[in-house]
Amino acid sequence: MSLLRVSNLSMSFGGVKAVDDVSFDVQPGELLALIGPNGAGKSTCFNIVNGQLRPSHGSVRLDGHELIGMRPRDIWRRGVGRTFQVAATFNSMTLLENVQMALVSREKRLYGLWKPAASCFEDEAMALLDQVGMAAHARRACSVLAYGDVKRVDLAIALANRPKLLLMDEPTAGMAPKERNDLMALTKRLVSGRGIGVLFTEHSMDVVFSYADRVIVLARGKLIAQGDADTIRNDASVQAVYFGTGKTFRPRASLSPDGATQTEPRA
Ligand code: ADP
Ligand code: MG
What we know:
alpha/beta
């Protein structure tokens, strides 16, 4: 059984079909990239899966259990975690405290009434910080961290909740190319070992093709292609959406400083 099964999802805003009969699966341990031009419906898909939006039609099943109609918090309880475009850490707290807080809320989620003290989780929090390469900074305040490092702490916090599925809507927005690659390499290493499925969006085609196990492409709300990097790179409808017919992706795309779509058509 798929970890996540999205079936025939549709959602309109006014007259705009933001998501139009979209179906896809995510397997345990798989990194699935959801790509498409601005306005394609990617964030709307994310927000339906995490319960922020209710679709007009369709089904979203996690381990066979229907999520549509559930509140965001209950969907989180079932094991759908997310990282945020704007990092969700508390600036005045240390890295260690931030991760400990996440561990406390996980225990509350799993064991209900028992309210554990944050101090219980110091070792586990340190281990998580170590896994994201931030253990040396554990007792510093989040406010002093560089942006890329905050994203690592964010990942540790998301993992502290032991999600089955992790939703990452533009996790590398605002990051330099090297940082983007580092964050996705780290994400891949940490989730595949744990069997966590990841659904992520990303503007850099380099990053998508380097780290996604599979790619699905949305355009104007419709799913127009899915497959591995090579399939997507060579798909005529994808090329048409991004560049106009007859163009192909460059093997290594250059990265633009503003984080906009970085692939260019080959002459
Ligand atoms: P993407 O994340 O791929 O850029 P979105 O899912 O944000 O795309 O948007 C898909 C379409 O739905 C766009 O046309 C956008 O303008 C529209 N849309 C998204 N959210 C809303 C909203 N809350 N109200 C009205 N229209 C929206
Ligand atoms: Mg978006």
